[in-house]
Amino acid sequence: MGAPCGIVLAAGAGTRYGGPKALAADADGTPWLDRAVALLAASGCDPVLVTVGAAAAEVARRIPAPGRAVLVPDWNDGLSASVRSALDAAAATGAELAVIVPVDTPTLPAAAVARVLGAAAEAAASALVQATVAGAPSHPVLIGRDHWAEVAATVAGDRGAGPYLAAHGATFVACDDLWDGRDIDERPAP
User: Fold this and answer.
1) How many domains does the chain have?
2) Which residues of the chain are under the pLDDT cut of 50?
């Protein structure tokens, strides 16, 4: 089995955040986009695809190596558009697995990616794995190639792959001991 494809979902406008989260940075100035691409690359993902939509040109310019931009022309349709575009782009690679993380999870640790990848080792292209924190679905999510077309066909609006994963017997991997599972939807108060 070859390297998994890493996917960073980063096409949204970040309405509640006040701007595209793909352009956000930690208090120390580290861009969230850099963190996400580095996390997936360090976890063995090749290629690392980054969905771009809102502020596409600016976000694409900021994608660090080895990340590659995937344009999401219908990004205004919600999360589902990013998932569809990313899985379509992943299908053009030789990868059997796609590891998906949203850009707004800058504290997601490499150990969570490793744990999810470890749970998929035997299943490869048929794998469906999702991290959980406190029993709730979290990130990363791993989807085997056998499911890409069907996931892309079933996502809608701001609903991602969660319902598909639940309906198709995904393996849920507890990551409570690794991180709090939070994504960042709003800017911290000054």
Assistant:
1) 1
2) none
In a domain, 138, yes or no: yes
| Those residues with Cβ within 8 angstroms of residue 176's Cβ, 6 or more apart along the chain or in another chain | 132, 133, 134
pLDDT recorded at residue 1: 60
Q: What's the pLDDT score for residue 187?
A: 87
pTM, two decimal places: 0.97
Asked whether 23 and 54 are in contact (CB, 8 A), the reply is no
User: Residue 125 is encoded by which pair of tokens?
Assistant: 């292209």
Which two structure tokens, joined as six digits, stand for 74? 């219908």
Within-domain flag for 184: no
Q: Which domain holds residue 16?
A: 5-174
End-to-end CA distance of the chain: 47
**Predicted local confidence at residue 23, as pLDDT:** 98
Supply the DSSP symbol for 117. H
Q: How far is CA 118 from CA 45, 57, 122, 130, 152, in A?
A: 13, 35, 8, 12, 24
Contact partners, residue 36, CB within 8 Å, separation at least 6:
8, 10, 50, 101, 103, 105, 106, 108
